[in-house]
Amino acid sequence: MMAESPKDERLLLAEDVVEIFGDGRSLEAACRVTFSLKTSPSVWVEINVDPHMEVGAIARLTFRNSGVTFDGFLTCASYSENVEAWFVPHLSGPISVSSAENLARVDFAFINFKQFYRQSADGPMHRNTIDLCGGGWRVQIRPLPGDLASVDRYRQAGAGDRRFTHSATLMREDGSEFSSDACRRALTALHLFLSFGNGQWMTFVLVRGFTATGEVAWQEWGTRWIERLIEIPDVWFETMHGEALAGAFPGFFDAWSLNQCSEEAIHTAVYWYLRSNSLGAGADGGLLLTQAALESLSRYILVEARGTLSKGGYKVLRASDRIRRLLIELTIPVQIPSSSEQLSAATPSWDDGPHAVTAIRNSVTHSYESSDSPPVFEAWQLAQWYLELILLRLFAFNGSYSNRTKQGKYIGQVEPVPWVG
Prior knowledge:
Layout: E1 11-22, E2 25-35, E3 43-47, E4 58-63, E5 69-79, E6 83-89, E7 95-97, E8 105-111, E9 117-119, E10 125-127, E11 130-134, E12 137-142, H1 148-157, E13 164-172, H2 180-198, E14 203-210, E15 216-221, H3 243-256, H4 260-277, H5 282-305, H6 311-315, H7 319-329, H8 341-345, H9 353-366, H10 376-394, E16 400-401, E17 415-416
Antiparallel strand pairs: 1-2, 1-4, 2-3, 3-6, 4-5, 5-6, 7-15, 8-13, 8-14, 9-10, 11-12, 12-13, 14-15, 16-17
Helix pairs in contact: 2-3, 4-5, 4-10, 5-7, 5-9, 5-10, 7-9, 9-10
């Protein structure tokens, strides 16, 4: 089914002239590039001339003023009194509009990030306000613009499960200029980090880069990966303690940017963590994803990053031994938490948490016959807790966090990470 036109709820990104080449013919027309979260895809190119193409046909779109070229397909057309036709990008992901070497700041908006609070040193609580500093970058996260016109404009472009939640500005800590390429890399890291804190994928939109004189020199059309807004179990980031984001970001950026191997390892682990958190495949399917992430991280840290084990020594270990060795290496407790009551009371009993996680994962995968159903949800929660702590340890985080294995917590309840507690 072709997507519907986003004509009634959209934000204007650009007005331009586009050359469209497809089906062996080309045409040039004035166009409007618009954005809407209520449709998928979110970026649309509207023209008011007949493209002489079938709906679904692929064309090459080149924008005269914006300097952008991408493949798109004709998604819908109307040939009534006023001719209207809409193209959308063929591939997902943000489209970089031009390039720049002299950016002073980049402004953008968040989609689907948690509402959070941070207590200042002088006492007052600040809502959705914090600065993240790492790798020479400063990210100023703020509430959405306060004027009603802007808020209404955001609401019209949003949808029930995709909402504008925050505004942000990215700049260099020392105030120096930077390139759009460097900015895109920083935004990629920030997207991964904030999604990890969010417990599900969030994203950025309306990304615009400014020079020191306030001129728009670069922008992005579209969004990075995002999931629909859903209720998820507790995660490490407790929203009454926004300072945890600022505490974890510098170490995250250092670890992520260390080298290509570390970047891939962290991205893979966070990807599987977020996929598992969504519970789209249930707790049993999530457990499989989480164990894959745990084993991937254990190989990276024990073999590649620290050299604690050789490749051969790692290969002969069972999955439970690989995870246990990593947890001990990072000063993370391996005992089954007392709050995991079903795991603690299960028969037969397990040696420790890694043994329980891998044994229950194997029972799910291989359908072992048993008179009792294993406590899959608690095993999944325990595995996700391990994964959160391993990543926080990798990010040199020494603050307080929310322990997802503990039930019935009060709002704002946190505890020190185990390696400092």
